[in-house]
Design goal:
Shape: globular
Radius of gyration: 19 Å
Structural class: alpha+beta
CATH superfamily: NADH Oxidase
CATH class: Alpha Beta
Order of helices and strands: HHEHHEEEEEHEHHEHE
Strand content: 15-25%
CATH topology: NADH Oxidase
């Protein structure tokens, strides 16, 4: 085992809490809490997502959902409906309650920090044209960011030639804005952000199973190309996790 591996393992421990002085955090210095979501740019229109009901569910029993949950990499050519996409976004980042400084959502997050922004590479979703979108959890709406020529091929390249990344109905792309966590938790933030990502993606897995879809979490991708695709600076915000989603193939 190399020294580097041993040092990286330290990241997985909670030892940083022993040395951290929270009185030095930006929160303790009365710096304003970072916004809970990125605002739309001027001129970007909101695409309000429809309400969904239980009619879209193929499974509701939690035991069945957990037992059937697995990574699925092959998808049918069927499009997702907009209510189905609405359900998946609600399950992964949906807001239950808005307070003065934070949001209560359907997924856990350390200190209610919720550092993630949800981008979507849309390929086959009814009523949506192909392109890059971003989810606004406060409004439960989408904004269309931009079109990308040869989006499928670019996503496959970003995904290190895993074809299902660009052959889905939609691929979820989660970015993180670390300062939302660092504002309070300083040097412990990286570990907490990684833990939070698991909360979000597991909800996506279970929600997909409930509506007859499949997904596969992607942690290995070409970072610079992913950030460039979404026009991110790669420092204050960068791609952290991805998950393609599509209808399960008939057995």
């Amino acid at each position: 085992m190399t020294k580097d591996i041993r040092e990286l393992r330290e990241f997985l421990t909670a030892n940083s809490w022993l040395e951290m002085d929270l009185t030095l955090s930006d929160e303790s210095k009365n710096f304003p809490r970072p916004p809970v979501q990125k605002a739309p740019l001027p001129g970007q229109e909101l695409i309000h997502l429809p309400e969904f009901n239980r009619d879209i569910l193929q499974k509701e029993d939690i035991i069945s959902l957990i037992q059937s949950r697995r990574s699925r990499r092959l998808y049918s050519s069927c499009a997702l409906s907009l209510p189905e996409l609405s359900f998946l976004l609600w399950a992964t980042q949906g807001v239950r309650k808005i307070t003065k400084n934070c949001t209560v959502r359907n997924v856990a997050s350390a200190g209610n920090s919720h550092t993630f922004e949800t981008y979507l590479a849309v390929f086959h979703v009814e009523e949506l044209k192909e392109g890059i979108y971003r989810y606004l959890p406060l409004e439960h709406a989408l904004i269309f960011e931009f079109s990308v020529p040869d989006l499928s091929e670019k996503m496959i390249e970003i995904g290190r030639n895993y074809h299902y990344v660009g052959q889905s109905a939609v691929t979820f792309i989660w970015t993180t804005i670390p300062y939302r966590m660092e504002w309070r938790y300083m040097e412990s933030s990286a570990r907490l952000i990684a833990i939070d990502a698991g909360h979000v993606c597991q909800n996506l897995y279970l929600a997909c199973e409930a509506i007859g879809c499949g997904t596969c979490a992607i942690g290995a991708f070409i970072q610079t190309k992913a950030d460039e695709l979404l026009r991110l600076d790669g420092k204050e915000e960068f791609v952290f996790y991805m998950a393609p989603v599509g209808k399960q193939l008939e057995k």
